Amino acid sequence: SCDECSRSSRCMANSVILLDTYRAISSAPFLWLACTDPLLAAFNLVIDLQVCEEMENENKVAYRDLRHNVMTFAVKIVEQCWTTEEIHVLLSRKVGSPLADCELPFPRVQLALKAHMKPFLSSLGVQAAMEDHWRGMWTDMGKFKYQDLSRKFRHFLCYPILALLHAISAGYCIKTFKYPLARYISRLASYTLFLIILIFIRYFGRTGERSTERSLVNSCLF
């Protein structure tokens, strides 16, 4: 019984030491002053705190509060940016990201998704940066109805011609395919065209089968 008591006391002491350590490194002054990349440190720390929250049942609430504080700290970093260009620089850093995510325009957004940092992703600055990237050069989308209609018409109905020109010129002639919104409209057009062709093929195929059945019935009657 004495061995069990000493073992449990050591476990509790180690648990308290671990919690105090995370309290120290989760503070805003430590993240600001002791880390060369505070945002990356916040991402990694949130993941560690989530693991501790799942493993340490006795201090689950404390680790949850620490994780919430670190998420709030990450949001404050974005709030320090004055312009959208500064947010783009902050989100486009590749340090700490896997090699597969370095090709993305905003690797830090992918890290935030892996860390389940909803407050950071839903912040106004990050949402504005994602919206700007989504629209591309179509920054006036939604302001002029006829211009928006012409853009949608060009990328929806004229998609086969635009795609052919884009492939032949290697993106030199049709540059709007660089915008995610334009690519979304074009892919929606291609999927719609595929469904229309599939419906026509199935319809005419069934018509041919019925005509063949009718001809067989007529031949049997005669």
Automatic annotation (TrEMBL):
UniProt keyword annotations, A-Z: Ion channel, Ion transport, Membrane, Repeat, Transmembrane, Transmembrane helix, Transport
GO cellular component: cation channel complex; plasma membrane
Stretches that traverse the bilayer: 153-172, 184-205
GO biological process, one term: regulation of cytosolic calcium ion concentration
SMART domains the UniProt entry points to: TRP_2 (SM01420)
Ranges for domain Transient receptor ion channel: 1-60
InterPro entries cross-referenced by the UniProt entry: TRP_dom (IPR013555), TRPC_channel (IPR002153)
Pfam family, one: TRP_2
Identification of the protein by name: Transient receptor ion channel domain-containing protein
